[in-house]
Specification:
Length: about 325
């Protein structure tokens, strides 16, 4: 079988238009020639694919020429250029129509000086008028005239001074302002409490002064560190105290007690007991201690009827000759002993 006939039969085999005789001849030639057999197998696969209606429709759609793409008018450069030109022309026309036109300036022609008329030349000179008064006479006349009353001075309006602006921190957040207000309120409450305790201490001091004979008091007091001469037994009253937090992180302890009492303040921690020295104050004022507390520190307040040899050895618990209380951390006050 010739090559042209084989290709013709292969095309008819793929489309399914061969007769039975042509199909038998194609199969016989394929058995004799290997290349024709391979081509027939490929055509068989294509024929099976085209036998499926869905696959055939997809193949025909893929082979069909693509329809022309429709481009919107606003994407065409010609239309865009024409629109831009129209906008520019309209804008230029409006600018020209609305701009003021310069009016032509009038031409100034030089005028010749008018010659004096002959009538003006013929007029006689003007007669001399009355003589002007001398300045000395005018001055004398002004001095002789009665002086006019001076106008009453106009009182200047009193302007109230502007209110003093309250200094405020620029851009301070609401939380910081609230914290300051709370701290100020706590400070005011602490001051009121101190004033009340000082008043109670004054009462106790006045009662003790009436019971005990007055004795000279030194200008400044110091902590109980050494033994002194024995004194008369005294009934120790419960003192009043307050703790105030300072801005630098320290704590100020104020103790209001009788002036004859011996006050000692001990700080206890793991390392032992430390006797705190009071700050110099007036003789009639309360005792004042300044201490920087650390976590785990405790403050014990002792108000004794007499001096002790070593205040650091005062007991932490048990009876004492006077008053003892743990003021930090907050604890219940011991009854006077």
């Amino acid at each position: 079988m010739k090559r042209a006939e084989a290709e013709k039969l292969l095309g008819g085999h793929a489309t399914g238009t061969l007769t039975e005789t042509e199909r038998q001849a194609l199969y016989g030639a394929a058995l004799e020639h290997q290349a024709l057999f391979d081509a027939l197998m490929d055509e068989e696969a294509l024929r099976e694919l085209l036998a499926d209606p869905a696959a055939r429709a997809q193949v025909l759609a893929a082979l069909a020429p693509a329809p022309p793409k429709v481009v919107p008018f606003w994407r065409r450069p010609g239309v865009i250029g024409a629109a831009a030109g129209l906008i520019v022309a309209t804008t230029a026309g409006l600018a020209v129509l609305r701009s003021p036109q310069d009016l032509p300036r009038p031409v100034v022609t030089p005028e010749t000086a008018a010659a004096p008329s002959p009538e003006a030349k013929a007029l006689p000179p003007a007669a001399p008028g009355k003589p002007r008064p001398k300045p000395e006479a005018t001055l004398n006349r002004a001095l002789e005239a009665p002086a006019a009353p001076a106008p009453a001075p106009v009182a200047a309006p009193i302007v109230a001074p502007p209110p003093v602006p309250v200094p405020q921190a620029a851009g301070a957040p609401a939380e910081e302002a609230r914290a300051r207000m709370q701290a100020e309120s706590r400070r005011m409450e602490a001051r009121e409490e101190m004033a009340k305790k000082a008043e109670v201490a004054d009462r106790y001091r006045s009662a003790a002064m009436e019971a005990v004979s007055p004795a000279p008091t030194p200008a400044h007091r110091v902590a109980v560190t050494a033994a002194a001469s024995p004194a008369a037994p005294m009934v120790v009253e419960a003192p009043a105290w307050s703790l105030e937090a300072l801005p630098d992180g320290a704590t100020r302890v104020r103790v209001a007690a009788a002036p004859e009492a011996h006050v000692a303040l001990l700080r206890r921690n793991r390392s032992g007991a430390e006797v705190l020295r009071p700050e110099p104050t007036e003789a009639s004022g309360p005792w004042s201690f300044r201490v920087r507390l650390a976590p785990g520190d405790a403050l014990d307040l002792y108000v004794l009827s007499g001096p002790v040899a070593d205040a650091g050895k005062l007991p932490e618990a048990g009876p004492v000759d006077g008053f003892r209380a743990r003021i930090h951390p907050a604890a219940k006050k011991d009854t006077p002993r």
